[in-house]
Amino acid sequence: MFRSWVILLGGLVVSSQALALAVFVDRPTFLEPALGEVEVVARVESSNPIRSVALTVNGRPQAILESAPYRWVVDVGGGNEEHTFKVVATDHAGATAEAVVVTPRLQIDEQVDLELQQLYVTVTRGGRAADDLARTRFAISDRGDPQEIVTFERGDVPLTAVILLDVSACMSGPELELALSSSRAFIDGLQSLDQAMLLMFSDRIVRSTAFTGFRDVLTTALSNVTATGATALNDHLYVGLKQLERQQGRRVVLLLSDGVDSASALAMKDVLDYAESSPSLIYWLRLPRPGAQISSAWLDVEGYRQELLGLEDLVIRSGGRILELAGVAEAASAFAEVLEELRGQYVLGYYPTNRSDDGSWHPIKVRVTGPGLRVRTRKGYIDF
């Protein structure tokens, strides 16, 4: 009776008919980790013609070759993990043999997680942008420790912005039309790699767009909006920051509102706690508040005052600023002013030397040498 058998030798499996067919994986070996693009080289020895040689990587089929050389280039990704390479040869008589190689993980005694911190720094001299400063004029400290500046750019880093417009009932009439049309000053200034989304709110989201670089999409969304409802500013400022969390580039919130919140479920402290982990800049285009003191069933006069102070603090801590408007008619020039400021910012990056990943607060200071210079950037970040 005819007998067949299987012999396993490292990455070699020999099968059937008295060693008539054998497969060897010459590369990679079981000694070397596989990362990124990997060359797989197989060798087949057979007394019969070969019909096909197939490769699978981690159980996923790759290309099937019908003639030598048996060579593949596959991308296994950048993860530090084991990978299984299996080559199966089949001859014209139907016999098969396979070879399997499992590559190991890269052994790491200690892994340090380095996360680049980026700072968007506004520098002014006499109230005007100082945009002619060299890298050597800047110094960063993190928790008081000097840091090495590893990236240095000016304001051509792309913007990703949330334009947050208060369209509650207090904005009805001509003021609403002015508020909507004024944001066009910012939209018209977007450059090819910039993106923005509109988020119009009252006590709910009245209208919003996805992030887009198409200005026509944004301006079309400004039409036929009705002012309605109370004002849930805290809730929607939080939503805007969450939307930016998944975005790249320089992230900015532009808020047009008087700042009086009458309907939010979140307190300003909740928003501030979240914002301390966000790199987003916040600019508040602040409309005049109603003349009378405000109170409600939820907050007394002092409570509203504290909420407004919290919003002011949030803006300053983010590295943005408050632009005081005498009325909605000034909003267009204020949007244009914010855009001009963003274009003139410096973008500094560094790898913190004192990371602890314990949720602690890291105060940041940026110093610039030179007479009459004033610096503004975010106040710090949460280390986690």
Characterise this structure.
It is a single chain. Strands 17-16-15-18-19-20 form a six-stranded mixed beta sheet, sandwiched between helices. A five-stranded antiparallel beta sheet has the order 1-2-3-4-7, with no helix packed on it. Strands 10, 11, 14, 21 and 23 form a five-stranded antiparallel beta sheet that branches. The chain is α+β, with helices and mostly antiparallel strands and 384 residues long. The chain starts with 5 loop residues before the first strand and ends with a strand. It is built from seven helices and 24 strands. Helix 1 runs parallel beside helix 7 (331-343) and helix 5 packs parallel to helix 6 (301-318). The chain has helices spanning 174-182, 184-187, 215-220, 233-245, 268-275, 301-318, 331-343; strands spanning 6-9, 12-15, 21-27, 37-46, 50-57, 60-65, 70-75, 83-91, 96-103, 117-125, 128-129, 138-142, 145-147, 151-153, 159-166, 195-201, 205-208, 250-257, 281-286, 322-324, 346-350, 360-368, 373-376, 380-383. Helix content is 18%, strand content 37%. Mean pLDDT is 87; it is low at 1-18.
Structural class: alpha+beta
Radius of gyration: 31 Å
Strand order in space, largest sheet: 17-16-15-18-19-20
Low-confidence spans: 1-18
Q: What fraction strand?
A: 35-45%
Task: Please give the largest β-sheet.
Answer: 6 strands, mixed
Q: What average pLDDT do the residues reach?
A: 87
* Contiguous helical run count: 7
Shape: elongated
Number of beta-strand segments? 24
Helix content: 10-25%
**Beginning-to-end CA distance, first to last residue:** 69 Å
